[in-house]
Amino acid sequence: MLSQKARYALRALITLGLRTSQEPMMIADIAEKADVPRKFLEQILLELKRRGMVHSHRGKFGGYTLGRAPEDISFAEIIRTIDGPLALTPCASRTAYRRCDDCRDEITCAIRKVLLHVRDATADILEQHTLAHALADEKSIRKPRRRRAA
Fold first, then answer.
1. DSSP type of residue 92
2. Which contacts qualify for 28-35: CB closer than 8 Å, 24 or more apart?
3. Dihedral sign (CA 26, 31, 32, 38)
4. At 135, is the secondary structure helix, strand, or coil?
5. Predicted confidence (pLDDT) per residue in 108-147, tens digit
6. Domain limits of the chain?
7. In the CATH scheme, what is the code of domain 1-73+130-145?
8. How far is CA 121 from CA 22, 72, 88, 116, 130, in A?
9. Alpha helices of 38-130 — where are they, by DSSP H?
10. Which residues are CB-neighbours of 134 under 8 A, at least 6 positions away?
11. pTM (two decimals)
12. Which H/E stretch holds residue 6?
């Protein structure tokens, strides 16, 4: 299950991506617009900064900007950064593999076989869906619709 922290990270990145100016956005503004507790957001932005997804800018007019183009930031990368591996069990993980403690035979384990398929399908979807896709979705939702002339 996606953690609240990962949802906050996604909302913060979408908020940064929706900015029309290139000026840094102050953390208080991100927190307000993304509806994320400020103290929690500071920790999240630090993790995203370490991975290059955001840049921080110091000074009176400092704040945060996206570190890369939205099409270069996948949902999978964001979720892995915040929540860790996408796999439901360690034996199905690509990035944090380890044999399950109670496993009798990893090669014939029916549970592992299913969870490998789940991991692959989940990873495929999350790798292909980028921040740019989410921004396009948000913009289409917020776009006022024109009324037809009668």
1. G
2. 29/63, 30/63, 30/64, 34/8, 35/11
3. negative
4. helix
5. 888 888 999 999 999 999 999 999 999 998 888 766 555 5
6. 1-73+130-145, 87-129
7. 1.10.10.10
8. 35, 20, 12, 9, 16
9. 38-50, 75-83, 110-128
10. 10, 14, 17, 70, 75
11. 0.85
12. helix 4-17
